[in-house]
Amino acid sequence: MSGTIIITGANSSLAIPMVQHILSKYPGYHLILTVRNPSGDTDVNTKRLRAVLEQHPGVADKTSIRALDLANLSAVHAFTEGLAAEIAAGTLPRVAAVVCNAYYWNLVDAPVLTRDGLETALQVNHVAHAALVLRLLTATTFASGGRVVFLGTNATDPGANSLEKYPPVLPNDLDDLARVPEHVDSSERAGTGFHRYALSKLAVTMFSYALNRRLEKDPDLNTVTAVTINPGNLADSRALQTNTPRALAVAQTLLLKPLRPLLAFADPTIRTAAAAGTDVAELATGHAHPGARGFFTLLKESKSSDESLKVDKQEEVWRKTLAWAKVDPKNEKWK
User: Fold this and answer.
1) What are the helix (H) ranges across 233-310?
2) Is residue 237 part of a domain?
3) Are 24 and 58 in contact (CB under 8 A)?
4) CA–CA separation, 101 vs 311, rounded Å?
5) Cα(138)–Cα(79) distance, integer angstroms
6) Which residues lie closer than 8 Å to 234 by C-beta, 6 or more apart?
């Protein structure tokens, strides 16, 4: 097996075991591993990622850790141009998969805008990934049978997540997703932050459906598939320690981690990041559900939220995303 797999947020709790799984089981791939800070000296998580790569010295020439700031669209566009140039020059195989894993949430501070003028969770979780994928999705850059993997969550299902305070329903004016309120009271920040996260992931899921419709009709790219996977509620994820109230971090330490085996009996989606990473790796390499499209919970094909299945809203999300991401598809049918 060959081809290039691009993984964003490659030093995350889920991505590190995903990388380990691919290197151990499918070493023929080239891996482009993107992180905000590629220095193992100043970023402890990148240091962990580098330690995994060092365990597989035989593939050193097929792996690279590269800086990519998803909160900067200019950086995303430049990154894709660079990759396309490497592929055109023959120094990098065509893209076999893009795994849109990086994420942002903030449950302790008020929402803020990026330098591109978009709410941060929306840009990092959705818009920047859309720009990355769309600019790489050409017949000369993407491999036949390639796959795009988006990371979903049960937060897009009303009432499915205990952190939900406001239901995940798109506003009538989609531009409201990109705006931030002038003030958010401290007592509302956890609920507001989680709502922003859920809405960004709802946009991800809806965009995936719209993308698949276009891929299926494109004679040059109809073998490429997009999937969105809810990888589960990861009891050991660093996400619960980052930009979260202290109570949530304490609950992870005292309850979620030690009681995870028991909790999993009642809810099988409560699992480890390593298990989730393995599932995402299998989807990305096409060993799980080859040729399939759509939404998965763990590795089981499932139904996404009712809101996400509204085709007219999917198309609205598509059109708005193109504008936010500053992407103008060359194929008129993709607009």
Assistant:
1) 246-251, 257-266, 273-284
2) no
3) no
4) 25
5) 15
6) 13, 14, 271, 272, 273, 276
- Neighbour tally for 63: CB within 10 Å: 22
Domain with 11, as residue range(s), is 4-232+271-334
pLDDT (tens, 9 = 90+) of the chain, 335 residues, equals 689 999 999 999 999 999 999 999 999 999 999 999 998 788 999 999 999 999 999 999 999 999 999 999 999 999 999 999 999 999 999 999 999 999 999 999 999 999 999 999 999 999 999 999 999 999 999 999 999 999 999 999 999 999 999 999 999 999 999 999 889 999 999 999 999 999 999 999 999 999 999 999 999 999 999 999 999 999 999 999 999 999 999 999 999 999 999 999 999 999 999 999 999 999 999 999 999 999 999 999 999 999 999 999 999 999 999 999 999 887 667 88
Cα–Cα dist 32/19, whole Å: 10
Whole-prediction pTM: 0.97
Distance CA 78, CA 160 (A): 38
Identify any residues that bridge with 63 across adjacent strands, giving them in sequence order.
31
Query: d(Cα 314, Cα 310) in Å, to the nearest integer?
Result: 6
Answer whether residue 158 is part of any domain: yes
CATH code of the domain covering residue 158: 3.40.50.720
Does residue 98 form part of some domain? yes
Spell out a b/e string for 118-136, using b for 16 or more CB atoms within 10 Å of the CB, else e: bbbbbbbbbbbbbbbbbbb
Give a yes or no: residue 215 inside a domain. yes
Q: Give the burial class of 262: count Cβ atoms within 10 A of its Cβ; 0-12 exposed, 13-18 middle, 19 or more buried.
A: exposed
Contact between 84 and 98 under an 8 Å Cβ cutoff? The reply is no
* Number of structural domains in the chain: 1
Q: What's the Cα-to-Cα distance from 79 to each of 76, 129, 132, 334, rounded to whole Å?
A: 5, 12, 8, 22
